[in-house]
Amino acid sequence: MAALDELREAVIDGQLAVAVEQTKRGLEEGIPAQTLFDDGLMAAMRRVGELFEEGEVFVPEMLVASRAMTAALEVLKPELVAEGASTSGRVAIGTVMGDLHDIGKNLVAMMLRGNGFEIDDLGTDVYPERFVQAIRDGAEVVAMSALLTTTMTNMRAVVEAIGEAGLREGVAVVIGGAPITQTFAEEVGADGYARDASSAVRMVEQVLGRVRATNGP
Ligand code: B1M
To answer: Where are the beta strands (DSSP E) in the chain?
Structure first.
């Protein structure tokens, strides 16, 4: 079986060692890292999500699949991220209150770090006050992730808390995650929405310009 098919199956089955092995094999065979990510890892997680909806797999299986994906992602990391040298801004990133999904958030953090940003990773289940504190600690951009339709609404609470603290003008807020859309970003008062990790880097670069213009030198 081809490396890409084996990789997908290994992630779906939660076989961490096989997923790592097939990722390495794919790279050795010249499959681009982005293809291994998109058509291997992401495709596998989409399938796991479908199987979960169909009642074919349960939370423990989703968890082992996510561990296999994370391990395979480590192999792809140097290929996906061209390490940048200088610090180009400080970003606080976290998955919102009530939400424990962190693979997408970690990926966005990894890409930002690789592009020279200083990252304050707040983790998962992050309460609004914690995002506010991160701005007081020097974050110029707040990046939020949500994977659940029940938790995405907590992004609004973060934007409001930042406003109530009188910090909204000096910070940019960008959001993402599977259920998020541009329309939703506008509804909650975020400055931008990014659909994946690469566009998150471009989005952060873009909004930083506005923050710097507001905050001055
Ligand atoms: Co969960 N889960 N899960 N889960 N889980 C989903 C999200 C779900 C869609 C599955 C399904 O039913 N099809 C569903 C949500 C349904 C809904 O809300 N409508 C769901 C559910 C229901 C649940 C539980 C409620 C299940 C239960 O307990 N009954 C529970 C909730 C726990 C909680 O958070 N409170 C739960 C738990 C879990 C696990 C813990 C088992 C595990 C997460 C492990 C972990 O993250 N460490 C898990 C997993 C693995 C998934 C699926 C299968 C995969 C998610 C993933 O990692 N994708 C997921 C189904 C799916 O998404 N297809 C599902 C890969 C990741 C790289 O993609 O996170 O989308 P993603 O990130 C992308 C973009 O979205 C974007 O960039 C990334 C790269 O392209 N992005 C950003 C993400 N964040 C960004 C931030 C930005 C910018 C871009 O900032 C600027």
So the answer is: 90-96, 118-126, 141-145, 172-176, 192-193
